[in-house]
């Protein structure tokens, strides 16, 4: 088998003798970057593969979290020193008058 390999190697060397690789320097710089600029360029030219299933799963979790936060607003009431009533909706505090004006407060 080694004789066969040697023969194939010799034939390949004979066929490739006339071919010269002229862009050795450019390819070496791109494949083995030394400066930060060349390293950054090499990093930015890499191909990445992102699974569509993972992207959709992350998007669904993100949208679900945003939607769930909107459904569960807390409403708290407290009295300040002057006695006016405040209510907390989400992270904001509103006076009784403000809520009546926009129609969010239903009093019986």
TrEMBL record:
Keywords: Membrane, Transmembrane, Transmembrane helix. The chain crosses the membrane at residues 50-72. The keyword Transmembrane applies. It comes from the Bacteria. This is Uncharacterized protein.
């Amino acid at each position: 088998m080694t004789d066969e390999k040697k023969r194939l190697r010799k034939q390949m060397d004979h066929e490739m003798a006339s071919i010269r690789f002229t862009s050795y320097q450019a390819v070496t710089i791109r494949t083995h970057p030394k400066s930060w600029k060349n390293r950054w360029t090499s990093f930015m030219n890499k191909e990445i593969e992102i699974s569509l299933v993972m992207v959709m799963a992350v998007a669904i979790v993100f949208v679900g979290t945003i939607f769930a936060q909107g459904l569960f607003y807390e409403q708290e009431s407290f009295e300040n020193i002057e006695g006016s009533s405040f209510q907390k909706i989400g992270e904001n505090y509103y006076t009784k008058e403000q809520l009546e004006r926009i129609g969010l407060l239903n009093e019986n």
